[in-house]
Specification:
With about 210 residues, the chain is of the alpha+beta class. The chain has 2 domains: about 130 residues, no CATH class; about 80 residues, no CATH class. Helices cover about 35% and strands about 15% of the residues. The protein contains 8 helices and 9 strands. Strands 2-4-3 form a 3-stranded antiparallel beta sheet. β8 and β9 form a beta hairpin. It is globular, with a radius of gyration of 18 Å.
């Protein structure tokens, strides 16, 4: 059964704010716990003091390649988040920023599938269906998908941009860089999807830092 993902442009505004750390993702999860049962390591920053106070220290480990104070929370033998109790997040009001900003709708937005080891997330994501109240919504969605395809095919062309190989981060990078794939025609007033010069993509990617 399809799941309504919302108007595309409105969703993009929200997800971009979440990516920038200026908001949270409002995902209509209902009873879905796919992301909580997908053997994921959850990053927690040193500034997340409230979250850290609600997770036993024994469940936290230093985050690889990140400064001191950054930690990750692992998963149990079933691949479940240890904070998931009887199918419900036991620290929902205090959950990590990673959980607050995660949104599996990034996959259908970018036209890519979750990694092979995340089948439940892939199944859930495949059911999301965006709506397009205007031509601009559809054009913007086309630009995100064009961005994802371009980044996937030209991964080696941007060695300094740190384009990730995993599906989640690739989808996020595509969202962040999609503006380079849009061109506005001042004469007609129309915005269309274009194939940008590599330098434009590089500039768009650099804004992530």
């Amino acid at each position: 059964m399809d799941l309504p993902a919302g108007d595309f442009s409105a969703w993009m505004t929200d997800v971009q704010a979440a990516i920038r750390g200026q908001g949270e993702s409002d995902v209509p999860c209902d009873s879905c716990t796919a992301c909580c049962t997908a053997s994921q390591f959850i990053h927690i920053g040193p500034d997340e003091t409230d979250t850290l106070a609600h997770i036993p220290a024994g469940m936290l480990f230093p985050a690889p390649r990140l400064p001191l104070g950054h930690v990750v929370m692992g998963y149990n033998e079933r691949g479940h988040c240890p904070m998931l109790v009887e199918g419900v997040c036991s620290i929902y009001a205090h959950r990590p920023r990673t959980c607050r900003t995660y949104d599996c709708r990034v996959f259908p937005a970018a036209g890519i599938t979750a990694d092979d080891d995340k089948p439940r997330i892939a199944e859930r994501a495949s059911r999301w269906t965006f709506s397009y109240p205007s031509d601009g919504d559809r054009t913007q969605h086309d630009a995100v998908r064009a961005s994802a395809m371009y980044l996937g095919e030209h991964h080696d062309a941007f060695p300094d941009a740190n384009i990730p190989a995993n599906a989640t981060q690739l989808a996020i990078a595509a969202i962040e860089a999609h503006g380079a794939f849009l061109a506005h025609d001042g004469r007609t007033g129309r915005t269309t999807v274009v194939v940008p010069e590599p330098v434009a993509v590089r500039v768009a990617l650099s804004r992530r830092d």
